[in-house]
Design goal:
about 625 residues, alpha/beta, 26-stranded parallel sheet, 9 helices, 47 strands, about 35% strand
Length: about 625
Amino acid sequence: MVGTTPTLGTIVGDTETWDASGGLRLNAHVTVPTGKTLLIQNTTIDMLDLSNQITVEKGAKLVVQNSTIKGGLCNQAGIWAGIRVIGTPTANHPGSGFDPYTMLNANHGIAILNGATIRNAKVGVASCTTTTDTNNYFDATTSGGLILTTNNTLFEDNEIGVFFSKFNQLNISRIYTTTFNTLNGFGGTINLLKNADGTPLGMPVGVAVLKNKMSRAFTQNTFNCTNTSTPLIQRGMGILNYGSQLNIGSDDLTDGNQFTNLYKGIDYYGSPSLNSQVKIKGNLFTNTQANITLTGGLLAQIKQNNIGSLPSSLPNYPAYGIFIDGTAGFSLHQNTINGTNPNAFGLVVKNTGSYAAEITENQFMGNLNVANLYLNKNTNLTIDCNQYAANIDWALLGNNLITGSDGFLEPQGECDPLYPQKARRNMFHTSQPSNPNNLHIMNLNTQEVYYRSYPGFKPDLLSGSADIDVCEDVLGDSQCSAFFGLDYCNPDDILAALISNSTMGDKARLAEYTKLLYARLCQDQTEQAKTDLNTEARDASYKVLTATYTDENDTLRAIEALSRLPLDNPDNADFYNLFMQLLSATGSGKNTPNYINITSAAKQNDRVLQPIAQSIVATNNLSVFDKQIP
């Protein structure tokens, strides 16, 4: 126990300092009690058993600077448990005047890692119990809410580097200038996270975040596997996000994170909830198999990322830059995806949903097999001002390939002389008519593609049913604009425009509703957004309200919003049944008939609700789903 005798260092006031240039070897569970601080500096500590850990209690602090804590060699695997920091799940983190370096907090333990190395741990730092009991490992009911700052720190060969368990308040932790690396691999059994079939995941994870609202972006971090001989599936993933509000990178491109030589870069799961928006900006991905994967979610923003050196697709492990599955109202803007292998996919989009989404000003370059693959039904989607250099620029595919592919793509472009920006200005790749597999648009659906282009931007190499034309009479130049303009965070102006313009067309009104929700979240106005959703009074808004209240454990309001959803089409009926089962299963375990039904829905590839069901299952089971491409 820190702060008592005997001690391994010196005690001054409420701070005990370990400064041992010769290193320390411990076979112990170290506890930093309330009111105390443990400072470890200029020291290497060998933790000699898997049961060894450091626990930081509420109101206590651990500071590790210029020091290494790693597994020793007295146990066969050379691993230890890690650092556990206790928090209060129901207590707010302190406000803007709080300095974790100089202050304590009665409700939450604090860990500060500055120039530290954490190696060979089951979980490097966690707001949960670090034991080998996998059934109770992440106990969100008793231990959410740690305050963590990492800077110039290395997490290496851990099963999980950092795990944030469920915390409904705003989390002020900061992860920056930190490296998460796999070199020799974790020496123990990797079994804390699961595959979709319940088997152990078998790969390390840099940071996992479960149902948090992170107030500070993850910036300038590196996630990599430096051992290039590591099998693909063991190279791990960088960030695993279970329904958390999280910014990965920022608009300042110097703040971006790097993801290199991994199996997965960012893997996200979420329901269409106001509390689970993810923003991925200005990051660099290199030689990673599945770079950005979104399963479900609402209003995701993917902007100015650079995805390079896409490797080759393997059986059951497709290589892709970005896969967006059932994410409503997303914005994919000014990204660059560059492939080096002819069987990789730049972007895969599946079932875009009932809010306006955009794919704009992106570059799909290099030797990609398919630059954009549109699966199933993609409505309310604007695809404009992108640049392509691939074998196939667009491929469209639905579910039922026996009776005729039943997919759908939102009509692209309009010929309006007064609004030239409505005509599409996608720059398809240079024609190579001698290659029959070289296409601008390959439509495998029975329903035709509708496309109206600005002069000079017409797609010519076509396969399948298509209605393509050039808007010869449009006036004005062909400059691309900001489209949604999501950096404009003034919801009052957007709301005023919606109220004052009763003649606004359906598509324009939908775009304004989408921008309004973005602006509300930009201003952290969740309650006002709920009011807007009630005013909007669309099927989609009732679904967002249902998912948001479910996230907030407000079962009565969730059921009330769900009851307003008309059951006049299969997608609405599926959504209603799924959330009624979820709300009925809450707190009753994972083996109830209702929860089993949700698990079954997660396996139904032909249903629009599949990504939501997968997100629910992944979040509850701490599991992951791998995407497959037909």
